[in-house]
Write a structure and sequence with these properties.
With 67 residues, this protein is mostly helical. It has 4 helices and no strands.
Amino acid sequence: MIPQTFEQWQHCIVHECGIPLTKDFAKSRLDIYKESNHPETKKFVQLYGAQHLQNIIGWLSRVAGSR
């Protein structure tokens, strides 16, 4: 299931994947996902679509405190 809300995504990251959702984690992911030519970002868009990428960027920005 692709998360549709911040709460669903947060649960997935923290509880299902076991990744601490820290500011440092969020900032490191933002550095990649905001770079449209980064291979990881291109792969993400292929798998999940541009709209979900924008959702993830927004949620990571929220965690990073840059929103």
